[in-house]
Amino acid sequence: MTAYLITGVSIVGGEPTDLLIRDGVVAGTGRGLAADDATVLDATGLVALPGLVDLHTHLREPGREDAETVESGSRAAALGGYTAVCAMANTSPVADTAGVVEQVWRLGREAGLVDVQPIGAVTVGLAGERLAELGAMADSAAGVRIFSDDGHCVSDPRLMRRALEYVKAFDGVIAQHAEEPRLTDGAQMHEGEVSTRLGLTGWPAVAEEAIIARDVLLAEHVGSRLHVCHVSTAGSVEVLRQAKARGVRVTAEVTPHHLLLTDEKAESYDPVFKVNPPLRTATDIAALREALAEGVIDIIATDHAPHAVEDKECEWAYARPGMLGLETALSIALDVFGPRWDLIAERMSRTPARIAGLAGHGLDPAPGVPANLTLVDPAARRVVEPAELASRSRNTPYARMTLPGRIVATFLRGEPTVLDGKAVK
Question: Are strands 250-254 and 299-300 parallel, antiparallel or unpaired?
């Protein structure tokens, strides 16, 4: 294993220092370090962050390898500064058994670019009718701890209660896609002024807020852990704020696109902007940003959702919802919050690693800590070119936008997965 001496780097925005990586861990930090056997990387002007962790990634394998594979998604993640991603269960076949989650886990290990932690389905086939093999998935080699029917709401309150009760035995988490389906039938975008003007069926904010309100009450009653996926409305923020004030064991995420893009993007009828939950209003964005900064929303999660060309380059009504996110998430965070490095480290690494129980991740670079880290050039700006993305899909909403920041290097347990902005393998 090669040793690396990273010189002149700022650790989470601190004063420039040196950082020595050896045998998979951070062997030392401080000015003037020397190591004759180490490869020297000049990191003057760069910031070292704990490797980013994504709690909401769609890798599509098995079943839709034309859109993404575990390997291609892992490469996109590494290039985005990630060292661990949690792979959603809506594959084909669905990851609702120990066999499927172990397949995804092994594919991640074979790729060796990030740690791929599978998320198991809550219900069999995501159908919302009976619980999947939660215990078997938890006891499998993949060690599943988060369960979600993402893309489908667990709308039956009795089934949701049973799921919350079941995962208490191993301190698991139910991650809910908050959408009351009877309020969103046929919905194409956010319900509001823009949907009315465009004549598109609206997705009302209350469809999200009602499920979150119900589920925090269930989680409070059961005493279990609830995680709310891709929060998108100001009303949802208020429900979460009140729940946290009461001590409910609830965490929540927001996506980069819900922090930046509004429903006005739908005026182009470009399906790249079709997503679930839909893009909301500027008022919602302001509330989400404030909630993330104060910790009412705990983390940024990408909801990286690659789609094949035929699923996006079609009429709006027939397009699949979803956007790419892994390779641009940190840049969006910098665009929204600026170089608030401790906030970014907390919301994109430390807290998601803690929610997922990923040992060795989410730890600031320090002596003895596993060397899972990323180096960022905050002064760089780049134009997002879809053809240059590592994902097999091209459905990025940021095409040809100029974004701040560049991932220079990513290390997974001391081994570089990205150097000089390029994937090592």
Answer: parallel
362: in domain: no
130 located within any domain: yes
Claim to verify: residue 87 and residue 233 sit in the same structural domain: yes
247, part of any domain: yes
Asked if 32 and 61 sit in the same domain, the reply is no
- State the residue for tokens 């980013």: 52
Adjacent-strand bridge partners of 57 = 87, 304
pLDDT in tens, 98-141: 999 999 999 999 999 999 999 999 999 999 999 999 999 999 99
Angle at 374 between CA 372 and CA 379, to 5 degrees: 165
Distance CA 325, CA 260 (A): 12
Position 271 pLDDT exceeds 90: yes
Looking at every residue in the chain, the average pLDDT score rounds to 98
Domain, as residue range, for 393: 3-48+367-423
pLDDT tens across 345-397, in order? Answer: 999 999 999 999 999 999 999 999 999 999 999 999 999 999 999 999 999 99
> Could you tell me if 38 and 23 are in contact, meaning their C-beta atoms sit under 8 angstroms apart?
no
What local confidence, expressed as pLDDT, does residue 425 receive? 82
CA gap 352, 347 in Å, rounded:
7
Question: Half-sphere exposure of 415 toward its Cβ, with a 13 Å CA cutoff?
Answer: 10
β-bridge mates for residue 124, sequence order: none
Evaluate whether residue 361 is within a structural domain: no
- CA triple 362-368-373, angle to 5 deg: 40
Identify the three-state secondary structure at position 113. Answer: coil
- Catalytic residue, chosen from 150, 303, 335, 377, is 303
Active site residue 139: no
**Which of 141, 147, 144 minimizes the C-alpha distance to 160?**
147
Do 185 and 159 fall into the same domain? yes
What's 82's domain CATH number?
Answer: 3.20.20.140
pLDDT at 81: 98
Examine the domain organization and report whether 152 and 170 are in the same domain: yes
Domain count, the chain: 2
Tens digits of residue pLDDT in 148-206? 999 999 999 999 999 999 999 999 999 999 999 999 999 999 999 999 999 999 999 99
Write down which residue in 331, 356, 381 finishes a domain.
356
